[in-house]
Amino acid sequence: MTTLAPGFAMEFTKSRAPGLLVTLVVAMAAAFLGSHYKGSVLLFALLLGLALHFVSEDKRCAAGIQFASSTVLRLGVALLGLRITIDHVVTLGWQTVVALMVAVCLTILLGLVLARLLKVESSLGLLIGGATAICGASAALAISSVLPKNAHLERNTTLTVVGVTTLSTMAMVMYPLITKWLGFDAVMSGKFIGATIHDVAQVVGAGYSLSTEAGDAATITKLMRGAFLMPVLGVISLALRVRTAGKPGSEDEVNTSKTPLLPWFTVAFVGFMLLNSTGWVPVSVQSGASFLSQSFLVIAIAGVGLKTSLKEVTQLGWRPVAMIFLVTLGLAFMAGGYLVAVQ
């Protein structure tokens, strides 16, 4: 046993090292571009990965790229739990939490309805709805990780990430102007921004561009949206199992039977959140975990880009683009309407 372990570890590392090094280089380049040009690091990582797709066709790199886009992704999502505490729920108030819960459910439902109306895969509607409702690219990657694997999943995931990140960047500029037009105060403006913009970085940028108070409210609201990721993943896993229960031998059943009802990283996420709520976790550890989580997500999305053919993505047509725009618009109307009604 003792002689087998080092050999296995060496073989495991050797088979994945080339691909992991490639994804790490892409992630570092994306971080450099993001810091110098003030853009989304995740989007840069995805675009650079797409440009280097040919690397994934090399058998020496395939295993490492797959490891980055799956296991590294799950580690990044799990560590997000250290950014959230139960105090965030108390700070927002139960009315806002319930409103966010309803908005998340309706946004995901809207994505599924639009997928049916526009005759595209339901998985694409689920990815777009979930990414828009919860936390943008991170949610798209997490949801993709629990969906049954097929020929279109990676392509749909890539399209969703590009779409929600692009619209999130546009919203960072436009939504602060909309809150002023609606006459919201600082806290209301922050809640609107936190409830509607997809990615954390853009939420922070938009919120603090108004004021410190608005930025704090936006960040807390956004973190609360992120907390819904784990329940959504659990519901998706359960729904897939129920759907495939009566279809023995189906591809979906084979895929879903390989994973537990609650994926390990969702359990880890909840555990980290509860641990963080105790107040025992030092601020330095929280900051380190947040940095590590973001780094893992950038590496993972670089891997997704490397695995995805840009030619296949461009062949999808206008329907997915229209879906992303309509779902984003629907969430903005829901959040704006609620805040106008309660102010």
Characteristic key phrases:
17 helices; globular
Description:
The protein has 343 residues and is an all-alpha fold. The chain has helices at 4-37, 41-51, 59-79, 86-92, 94-117, 122-133, 136-146, 153-182, 186-196, 200-210, 212-227, 229-244, 251-257, 264-277, 283-307, 310-314, 319-342. α1 crosses α2 and α6 (122-133) runs parallel beside α17. The mean pLDDT is 82.
Give the SSE map:
Blueprint: H1 4-37, H2 41-51, H3 59-79, H4 86-92, H5 94-117, H6 122-133, H7 136-146, H8 153-182, H9 186-196, H10 200-210, H11 212-227, H12 229-244, H13 251-257, H14 264-277, H15 283-307, H16 310-314, H17 319-342
Task: Bin the strand percentage.
Answer: under 5%
| Portion of residues within helices | over 70%
Please give the alpha-carbon distance between the first and last residues: 66 Å
How many distinct helices? 17
Shape: globular
> What structural class results from the helix and strand content?
mainly alpha
Query: How would you spell out the order of helices and strands?
Result: HHHHHHHHHHHHHHHHH
Query: Radius of gyration, Cα only, in angstroms?
Result: 20 Å
Quaternary arrangement of the chains shown? single chain
Biggest sheet statistics: none
Task: Summarize it.
With 343 residues, the chain is mainly α. Helices cover 81% and strands 0% of the residues.
